[in-house]
Amino acid sequence: MTPDLSKPFLARVTDALPDLHPSERKLADLVLDFPGEMAGYTATEIAELANVSNATVSRFVRRIGYASFDEARRAVRDEQRAGTALLRMSSDVPSATGAVARHFETSQQNLELTYGALDDAVVDSLARAMIAAPRVWFIGFRAGQAFAQYLGWQTSQVLTNVTVLPRAGETLAESLVSLTDRDVVVLIALRRKPKLVAAVADAARAACARFALLEDRPSPDLAGADWYLGCTTSTQGPLMNHVGCMAVCNLLGARTIELAGPQGRGRMAAIEEAHRRFDEL
Fold this sequence. Notes:
The chain is α/β, with parallel strands linked by helices. It has two domains: 9-88, Winged helix-like DNA-binding domain superfamily/Winged helix DNA-binding domain (Arc Repressor Mutant, subunit A), CATH 1.10.10.10; 100-278, 3-Layer(aba) Sandwich (Rossmann fold). 54% of the residues lie in helices and 9% in strands. It has helices at 9-16, 22-33, 37-40, 43-50, 54-63, 69-82, 99-117, 120-132, 143-155, 172-176, 196-206, 243-259, 261-278, and strands at residues 136-140, 162-165, 184-189, 210-215, 227-230. Helix 11 (196-206) links the parallel strand 3 and strand 4 (210-215). Helix 2 packs across helix 5 (54-63). The longest helix is centred in the middle third of the chain and has 19 residues, at 99-117. The termini are far apart. The relative contact order is 0.11. It comes from Meridianimarinicoccus roseus. InterPro entries: Homeodomain-like_sf (IPR009057), HTH_RpiR (IPR000281), RpiR-like (IPR047640), SIS_dom_sf (IPR046348), WH-like_DNA-bd_sf (IPR036388). It holds the Pfam family HTH_6. Residues 7-83 form the HTH rpiR-type domain.
């Protein structure tokens, strides 16, 4: 079967399985269990891990549509950088000893890089714009959804009209049709970005709404935001490390509350009174 060259690495391997020779199938099984091995090993090392010949490795990568092992390895590395969790898995499973320290070091580095790129003026300008806007939209997909929910929850202490998208059971169109040029959209676009992310950015531009972008890797189709907030989510494991994104969201939420002034404090006081009346806490 001719491989579909538009497909990513793992999809090509899966498609080829029925047509593979036994030795190639052994290699495919290794790759599917630990596809990240392709990024860090030579063809000879991969052959040794799978207990096959170098010639088998060469035939295998050609069968799935790559001109050489190096081309296949570059494709895996590109997909790793794009955020594919499975491609960051290795057969060298780290021992439990040192896991906490390793994760702490990664988190610390991500926080340093994230905070080092932040600008007080940008954060405060966005916070003031959200306070002044008749409606603020927090939009995030996949991992970004949790951070959109967090920002919506925290800023609603001082903002009277907050919408978090997507909402269960609704299409984006049913909500974004209400977007106006006086609104502020905060789009959280983390790897791996769904195609809908670019559509949301286009909708914000079309409505002439002011648009803030929080992302961990710059995307050409999201260029032109009124405010740009970057975060670093580098990782040594199978999951992206999102402490940097959480830090930005916490900072933006805190500054919005701090800058909300008497009106914001009045809303917070009313919420506390309602808590007492409802006996919720």
